[in-house]
Amino acid sequence: MDCSTEEITRLLKAAGAGDSAAEERLLRAVYSELRQMAQSWMVGTPPGQTIQPTALVHEAFIRMAGNNGDGWENRGHFFFAASRAMRDILVDRARAKAALKRGGGRRRIDLEKLVVATDATDEDLLDLDAALGRFESMFPWEHRLVMLRFFAGLTNEETAQVMAAPLRTIERDLRFARAWLVDVLLVENKNAESSS
User: What is the pLDDT of residue 148?
Assistant: First the structure.
């Protein structure tokens, strides 16, 4: 179902106001984009992953709808929320698996391209989630950029458009975000290695 940005915004507002018919039309309108986002989250996940992209889309959408639309302002805000919901679902699953294992060897995370979100072990995903939580509390603007660029799969240009900011600002802030996350994760991994 092809919808204009204006139609999607209208559906978002109606769904946020509790219109279940608008919620269903919204899911149909954005389903293929959400599925692509879920597939990018699932690429290279460790063996034994029990959730499939389709299930991830549906579970994320149910979570988002359960939050009464979280006041989605526009298409970009909606996809940010969808990316966040998918990340939260995968992190919750990783936590549940890690709770069963309790321990194990850690390995260094390579965040040169911030690809760890798609090919991380459960422990790496939990480390990244913790780092992103701290990052969000300190740098909310840059956190939104990371979520849109690396987790929602938008290009730098699309991120600039969604955030209504110059491309150069987006690129600069993403470089900062990547450097901050790499630094924090490397320090945490060194601490984990020295304590084992």
Answer: 84
Same structural domain, 62 and 124: no
| pLDDT average, residue stretch 64-68 | 68
Same domain for 62 and 116, yes or no, is no
Count: domains in the chain: 2
93 part of a folded domain: no
* Higher-scoring residue by pLDDT: 142, 48: 142
State pTM to two decimals: 0.57
Could you give the C-alpha distances from 44 to 7, 148, 166, in angstroms and in order?
34, 20, 32
Question: What is the per-residue pLDDT for 138?
Answer: 94
Grouping H, G, I as helix, E, B as strand and the rest as coil, residue 2 is coil
**Contact call for residues 79 and 109 (beta carbons, < 8 A):** no
Q: How many C-beta atoms lie closer than 10 Å to residue 192's C-beta?
A: 15
Contact 185, 151 (CB under 8 A): no
